[in-house]
């Protein structure tokens, strides 16, 4: 064998090593992405659950706020207005953050679709619409457009469930 033959063999072995390294890195990236998405899903759920504590502070404020049909929220006391407005801001900022994660590919479509259903369920309730008319400028335009062009989901809303209970 000549030196040229050995050089050619060396190039082939080197190329195979580069390919093997790229395959390994690909598997590592894929595993890391999966882990990141699972962790992100857990964080999103935990953060949302922490917002629910403000609902439990005064459930009547939240339910009355969601049923409100005017931006004056006459059916709420000043304290209840504060609780409702703060809770809604927290909820919708959380939904906006999830929307951005989905747009940038951090959140997968299946996860976003599930959370989107929940966000739209809140958004299409009368009190949320009244609140949105007062606060929508605090959200990025793409998220505003997404919500305003969305359809109400098929799931029954909180207001519907409350109305059924009061009717019986």
* Individual helix count: 7
Terminal Cα separation, in Å? 94 Å
Counting helices, strands and paired strands, the structural category is mainly alpha
Helices and strands, in N-to-C order?
HHHHHHH
The count of DSSP E runs of length 2 or more, i.e. the number of strands, is 0
* Helix coverage percent: over 70%
Shape: rod-shaped
Q: Uncertain spans, ≥5 residues at pLDDT below 50?
A: none
Oligomer: single chain
Domains, number: 1
Largest sheet: none
The average pLDDT score comes to: 82
Radius of gyration: 25 Å
Strand content: under 5%
Concise summary:
The protein has helices at residues 3-57, 59-67, 78-103, 109-123, 126-135, 141-148, 158-167. It is mainly alpha-helical and 168 residues long.
Explain what this protein looks like in three dimensions.
- This protein is mainly α.
- It is 79% helix and 0% strand.
- It has helices spanning 3-57, 59-67, 78-103, 109-123, 126-135, 141-148, 158-167.
- Helix 1 (3-57) crosses helix 2, helix 2 (59-67) packs across helix 3 and helix 3 packs antiparallel against helix 4.
- The longest helix is centred in the N-terminal third of the chain and has 55 residues, at 3-57.
- The radius of gyration is 25 Å and the shape is rod-shaped.
Question: Features of this protein?
Answer:
mainly alpha; 168 residues; rod-shaped
Question: Helices, strands, pairings?
Answer:
Elements: H1 3-57, H2 59-67, H3 78-103, H4 109-123, H5 126-135, H6 141-148, H7 158-167
